[in-house]
Amino acid sequence: MKLIFFGPPGAGKGTQAAMLSEALGIPTVSTGNMIREEIAAGTELGLKAQQAINAGELLADEIVIGMIKTRLAKPDCAGGFILDGFPRTVAQAEGLCGMGIDVDKVIDIVVPDEALVRRLGGRRVCLKCGATYHLENNPSPAGDRCGRCGEPLSVRKDDSEAVIRSRLEVFHMQTEPLEAYYREKGILFSVDGDSDIGSIAEEIARIVRD
Ligand SMILES: [Zn+2]
């Protein structure tokens, strides 16, 4: 089973991909994790990636495509895989197709922008001990201070409303053409992602089974 998980930042793709990956016994291939590993290891690719991130740019398609090609050739992907965070552009989708890989299904996790802003904007972190909280789902027992160490909680720079909205704008701009690309192929399946984790997982499992 070759699957793509698709959805805006904060839609819960990573969580859902991890659950399904375990249930099906196939790996999740996350470009975000791969890039973080390259950066941490200080490889040439990692340096290029870091430069792109610092400049607020996306990594060039051919770099990401090359990375994915190497990863999907590994033996653990022989029985299938879940792609998380790739493809992000139509050029990347065409690159995947060019590798001779026929994707079975694209799971499109749909969440309204306002719900994402609420979800991501409610995150609070403790810069001292690393504890994470959420104003609605997981509030700190100590109010606006860390329940573990008492430090005042902070909003991560990535989670400010302006940054969230600009990330969503980039997502819509790149993704709408990609949605159309897979819809035309008849393999795009939409899931209501503005629901609880269990119901979303059930809906995804049903789509994968059918
Ligand atoms: Zn703390």
Defining key terms:
210 residues, alpha/beta, Rossmann fold, five-stranded parallel beta sheet, 8 helices, 14% strand, globular, binds zinc ion
Question: Which secondary structure elements does this structure contain, and how are they paired or packed?
Answer:
Blueprint: E1 2-6, H1 13-24, E2 28-30, H2 31-41, H3 44-54, H4 61-72, E3 81-84, H5 90-98, E4 105-110, H6 113-121, E5 123-125, E6 132-134, H7 161-184, E7 188-192, H8 197-209
Parallel strand pairs: 1-3, 1-4, 2-3, 4-7
Antiparallel strand pairs: 5-6
Helix pairs in contact: 1-8, 2-3, 4-5, 6-7
Structure in a nutshell:
The chain has helices spanning 13-24, 31-41, 44-54, 61-72, 90-98, 113-121, 161-184, 197-209, and strands at 2-6, 28-30, 81-84, 105-110, 123-125, 132-134, 188-192.
Structure description:
The chain is α/β, with parallel strands linked by helices and 210 residues long. It has one domain (2-209): P-loop containing nucleotide triphosphate hydrolases (Rossmann fold, 3-Layer(aba) Sandwich). The chain is built from eight helices and seven strands, in the order βαβαααβαβαββαβα. The chain has helices spanning 13-24, 31-41, 44-54, 61-72, 90-98, 113-121, 161-184, 197-209, and strands at residues 2-6, 28-30, 81-84, 105-110, 123-125, 132-134, 188-192. The chain has a five-stranded parallel sheet, with helices on both faces. A two-stranded antiparallel sheet has the order 5-6. Strand 5 (123-125) and strand 6 form a beta hairpin. Helix 1 packs across helix 8 (197-209), helix 2 crosses helix 3 and helix 4 (61-72) runs parallel beside helix 5 (90-98). It is globular and about 55 Å long. The structure holds zinc ion.
